[in-house]
Design brief:
Elements lengths: L5 E3 L2 E3 L16 H15 L9 H15 L6 E4 L2 H11 L5 E5 L4 H9 L3 E5 L13 E5 L11 H6 L4 E4 L16 E5 L11 E5 L42 H16 L2 H18 L9 E4 L10 E3 L2 E5 L6 H11 L1
Parallel strand pairs: 4-5, 4-6, 6-7, 7-8
Antiparallel strand pairs: 1-2, 3-9, 8-9, 10-12, 11-12
Helix pairs in contact: 1-6, 2-6, 3-4, 7-8
Length: 331
Amino acid sequence: MSSPPREAFGARFALEPGYLNTASIGVPPLDAVAAVHAALDRWQGGVDRPSSFEPAIAATRKAFGDLVGVPSSSVACGTTVSQLIGTVASSLPRGARVLVAREDFTSVTLPFVAQGHRVDVVPLDQLVSAVDGHDLVAVSVVQSADGRMVDLDALRATGAPVLLDVSQALGWYPVSLAWADFVVGVAYKWLMAPRGAAWLAVRPDRLDSVVPVAANWFSDPSQTSYGADLVLAPAASRLDLSPTWFAHAGAAVTMPWLATLDLAAVRDHCAGLADAVLTGLGLPPAGSAIVSLDVPAIPGVRSSIRAGRVRLAFHLYNTSEDVDLVLKALT
């Protein structure tokens, strides 16, 4: 790389100016890359055992709990959001009524459709007013396509059972979600870890209602590895999948670090940069780290096209230099 590493919130990042695609793939800090390289070196040398990764898995489980405001005993480890939501969807009564936002990501909505539940679809701004009569409300805290945010306080006040996807929020947006029935999130976006790890927080009073549809050796606390005796852990780890080791090797660096940060300051930094782009274009600020613009692809900027619009995502490693690149290209 030609540019010196960027420093942000005590970490160093080897990325060029103009990377505004965290909503698709987050960029890891250098020490997380080093941890994954070390794990690959151990693999190459044949010195690891499955148990070698248990400290990293325990660290990511605890850090996810810390970030969403629940104990680690309430957190299950999986691989993708759709897999974990599929576990919840398969545990609902047949024909359950599920409310989703029309604009939400399909990993949130389709698991319920695939299970044959009655899925009612409404615009995001009508979600809270439409909760009555539903067995579950499933929604992303921050919308993938355009960065709009659900009103968590209003949703909580309804008392409706909820599943919240924090994949586009956790890492830049501070949350406290112990009240939610289910909270799911993925590693490789704002948590800046390798793809292949995801987590599901289950409120303790809902745990017995969730069927471990992918029960396996790792989710069995006896870890006998053989036979047909189903032994369930008392904690949410009964829902674990066998983990993707190298994803946790990286996540065990980034997630505990993020959990120590002042996430309100991180939010102000990220949303402040995004709002600087909006105000620079004569648009009202939105208070989100994700910006959706009806413009052509922006030269010199790494971004995504979502719902026919350019999506920009500002994380803690972005700076005003990235804002200037966007505004110079568009104005």
